[in-house]
Design a protein that fits this description.
globular; five-stranded parallel sheet; 5 helices; alpha/beta; Rossmann fold
């Protein structure tokens, strides 16, 4: 079975090493970070793509890993990637957020995009 292209969102103290591990395993397609220079630096280091937005990343990657440090940031990222997720996409959240926010994100991902 071929490896699934994985996109990583959030390249902070926890996310960057996690993304590097995905790269070493041959799974990292690319990354997005609110501070674009972090994704660009990872792309230069690993050869992965630096995506311009969470939506662009979700459109290209059937697996998306999020690792952000604030509830509102996670909700904004999930809302941004939701319209371009394809059926069968997998979203893995590793964020440091409140339990209620973490439990609510799967419902938010499944909610149809606003018109």
């Amino acid at each position: 079975m071929p490896a699934m292209k994985t996109g990583f969102i959030g390249l902070g103290a926890m996310g960057q090493p996690m993304a590097r591990n995905l790269h070493r395993a041959g799974l990292l397609e690319g990354a997005w970070n609110r501070t674009a220079s972090r994704a660009e630096a990872l792309a230069a280091e690993t050869g992965c793509r630096a995506f311009a937005s969470p939506a662009e990343l979700a459109a290209a990657c059937p697996v998306v890993v999020t690792c952000v440090s604030a509830d509102d940031d996670l909700l904004a990222v999930v809302d941004a990637l939701r319209p371009t997720l394809k059926p069968g996409s997998i979203v893995i959240d590793c964020s440091t957020v409140a339990a209620d926010t973490a439990r609510g994100c799967p419902r938010q991902v499944r909610r149809p995009p606003s018109s």
